[in-house]
Amino acid sequence: MSGSTGMPESMNSIEAVDAIESILDESSVEIDEVEAEASEAPAEAEEVTDEAVEVESEEVAPSEDEEQGSIETLAELAEALDLPLEEVMANLKTTVKVNGEELAVTLKEAFDGYQKDADYRNKTTELAHQRRAFDEQSANARQQLEQQFIQLGQFIQTAEQMFVKPLDPTQMEYLRQTDPQRYLMAKHEHDEQVAQVQRLKQSAAEQFAANQQYLQQQQQAQLAEVFEKASQELHTRIPTWSNDTKTAVDSYLTGDKYGYTPQELAQVIDPRLVEIAHKAMLYDQQASKADVVTKKVKTLPKVQPKAAQNKVNPKLDALTQAKARLRKSGSTQDAVAAVEQLLF
């Protein structure tokens, strides 16, 4: 019996019962504690879930202060920092790329550069529009003037054909012989008609010349205005531009490489073309200087490295000679001499 219950043989039945009861009581307490913990867990989970929902709702829904306090402009940032806008722009930096190189500049520098670039582009565009308008107006005025002159010439030619009748030589000769007075009258009338047509032609030519001169004066005035604005922009593009620079660029363009004539250069107004020519001239000058330096380097004599001089130690040389004499003679005197070279 005792072997089947697993109880120690020395324990009596009363002790066995007490032991079993004690074990059952402990098991019951443990079960109650587990159930209690299990019942409390959902409540805690619900509390945690509620707190998480509240936290999440607080994170998702921004407060009115946050909505009202969002910063979208530099002015708002300066106001939030309680600093002047100029100070904020002078201290905040950004990165810009200029000629492929990134540079750190302040917002004020970037803003000023943008304004300057925008003004620069506007002036360039305005100058290009003015030049195109000038070219179009000049072409239209010349075309109208030429058309008027052609029409006037056709009118005079028609009038000449209508009013100036050619005289019949045979009839005029007959009148001259038979009726000299009628001959003179016919000749005078014809000469007057020819003279009148000639006066019309002369008047038309003079009017055309006057209109052409007036047109040229107008064009020159407009061209001078365009030149003035182009000159101002040119000094913006090339701050070092001067009469000497202009002479150098003109000489560069009229040289053998490009062969422009002075008349062709006089028609160049666009400062962008002048800037390109100036850069080309500077590039060729630098390349020419580099070629001269290269040629000078090539003509320099080759420098031969100095032969290493064998520095002979007199003491070692005397010892070597003494040893050689000793090997050759084997005498005691040579042996003593060799030892002396070692010692002294």
Protein model, in words:
Among the domains are: 2-60; 131-237; 240-296, no CATH class. It is built from 13 helices and two strands; from the N terminus they run αααααββαααααααα. It has helices at 2-5, 13-60, 64-68, 74-81, 85-91, 107-163, 169-178, 180-237, 243-253, 262-266, 271-299, 314-329, 332-343, and strands at residues 93-98, 101-106. It has a two-stranded antiparallel ribbon. A hairpin with a 2-residue loop joins strand 1 (93-98) and strand 2 (101-106). Helix 7 (169-178) crosses helix 8. The longest helix has 58 residues, at 180-237.
Characteristics:
single chain; 344 residues; mainly alpha; disordered N terminus
How many angstroms does the end-to-end distance come to?
A: 116 Å
Shape: elongated
Which residue ranges are poorly predicted, with pLDDT under 50 across at least 5 consecutive positions?
1-21, 27-31, 41-61, 63-67
Return the string of H and E elements: HHHHHEEHHHHHHHH
Q: What is the CA-based Rg, rounded?
A: 58 Å
How many β strands by DSSP? 2
Based on secondary structure, the structural category is mainly alpha
List the helices and strands and how they pair.
Elements: H1 2-5, H2 13-60, H3 64-68, H4 74-81, H5 85-91, E1 93-98, E2 101-106, H6 107-163, H7 169-178, H8 180-237, H9 243-253, H10 262-266, H11 271-299, H12 314-329, H13 332-343
Helix pairs in contact: 4-5, 6-8, 7-8, 8-11, 9-11, 12-13
